[in-house]
Amino acid sequence: MKKSNFVFLIGVLVLVVSIVSAITVDSRFRSSTGAAFTEISTLNDVSSPNSLRFFASQITSFPPTNEARFRVNFASDTPLSDLNTISWMQFVDHGYVSHVDVYIDTAGDGGGSDEALVFEYAKVDPNLCDGSSTPGDGIYPTGQLNTFGDKGIVDAGAFAWKNSGPAGPCGDSNFDSGHKSLTDWKTTFPNAKVIAIEIEADGWIAESEIFIDDVMINGELVENFDGSQEVEVEIVQLTLASITPVSLNFGSLSPGTNDNPAVNGPIMFDATGSNTNVRVEVSAVTGFPFETGLKLDGDDTPFGKFWNLDCVENNNVCTFTPATTVPTLSIPAGAISGLKTGMITYTITGPTP
Amino acid sequence: MIKNFSVLLMMSLLVLGISFVFAADQTVQVTIGGDVVVAISPNPLDFGNVLPNSVDNAATNGPIMFDATGSNVDVTVQVSSVSGFPFADGLMFDGEEPVGKNWLLECTIQNNICTYDSASTVPTLNVPAGSAQGQNQGTITYTVTGPQP
User: Could you report the predicted ipTM of this complex, rounded to two decimals?
Assistant: First the structure.
């Protein structure tokens, strides 16, 4: 074969491999649970100017776990067989090095994630479990690392343990049966799809503070935290209530009649526009003949009656079901003829602090 | 006489030798790779306290600035996504939907060094009626690219 043809063939092979191994990232999120947080930082960045800071307090009670996470969601049709490498830069200020969970749909049937493969420093090399120099020495690296430092990145030979099984120890048959290399997991789950990866720092071993940067999948840069900006807002409490009709009208009534309905009743209370639970309470009724003759839902003591309008969140927006009350009016015998006006006063409150 | 001649001959050879050293040239070369660095500030962008059903709330620490100082090529910054409530639907840049907006930061060479004018955009936030009370966080993601090959 001519040398030029050979070079061309190699070039074509490289192109084919890179096409087959292409990973489509759907979205990226960061999150935390328990006493943990993530934040964009300008400290310990590898690619200027930002890194992502993980902080997780040591877990002293469970739940919740204290975990700071960065998640990359994959396109729904990504086979596990296409995942070749995962790497990220991490500066371990203190605590335990961050790890990565690979969430998979084992059957690849679209049923969502039903297993996670955990690649962590302590278990990624089965010949050096739970240690750095000798197995079980419990010494873990700090400072600047590429993924797992002296134990390399996540690649074909990196070992992961199955999250649905025990977390250790190496040598235990139950653990060992669910502790395999990435290559072997691909064989175990030939149809599996990758749903997401999550790089995490947690507080299982110690309080951990880690700065990560330059997350790469199959050698492609997925995130370096330099092109993102956090945005924050505090939405303050707002309590509103509309009470209709504004002018409640009982029409023309005869003296000596009881429980006359309003011509434009019932009274409706609506808190739409509020963002908290709202309480509407009758605080006063004034004017003749309303002070003594007004009933709400047959209760002849309207003062103190109240209605709770509860916020039901729907896509971060409060919705409310209006409340109603049926007003009636009794006119004492001998009441002087003519137009009478009065006032119902309500107190509207949000939740008490 | 012979002794003096020898001294002169040696000095001539020495001068000739030195002349050879000074006449030598050396080529030096380097290839400087392309580099893209963009600082986007402030981070985080903060809208402070806002009421539900309010529009065009200004950021308390705006505007947003894009600075490519440290790069050595023309740089384009483009908003690729905005996530989180109420930002995904309520964030505006210069009064417009932010996703797709872009800014070109051009290298101006001074003494072989790229310098840049920073770009800026004014963010505002619309908050829908009934928005649940509390602290909300979101993320603006930008795509930062150098010149196309």
Answer: 0.79
Q: Give CA–CA dist B100/B90, Å, rounded.
A: 15
Rg of the Cα atoms in chain A: 33
Residues in chain B: 149
Q: How would you classify residue B83: left for phi > 0, otherwise alpha for psi between -120 and 50, otherwise beta?
A: beta
Report CB contact under 8 Å: B45, A40.
Answer: no
Alpha-helix runs per DSSP H in A249-312? 290-293
H-helix segments, B1-149? 2-23, 87-90
Of A40, A228, A236, the CB nearest to B50: A236
pLDDT digits (tens, 9 = 90+) for B17-62: 455 556 778 888 877 766 777 888 887 899 999 999 999 999 999 8
Which residue in A137, A107, A108 sits closest to A121, CA to CA? Answer: A137
Please answer whether residues A201 and A70 qualify as being in contact, where contact means their C-beta atoms are separated by less than 8 angstroms. Answer: no
What is the value of pTM for the model shown?
0.56
A229–B45 C-beta distance less than 8 A: yes
Q: Which of B43, B48, B91 comes nearest A234 by C-beta?
A: B48
Token pair belonging to A185: 């997991």
Q: Would you mind telling me the total number of residues written for chain A in this entry?
A: 353
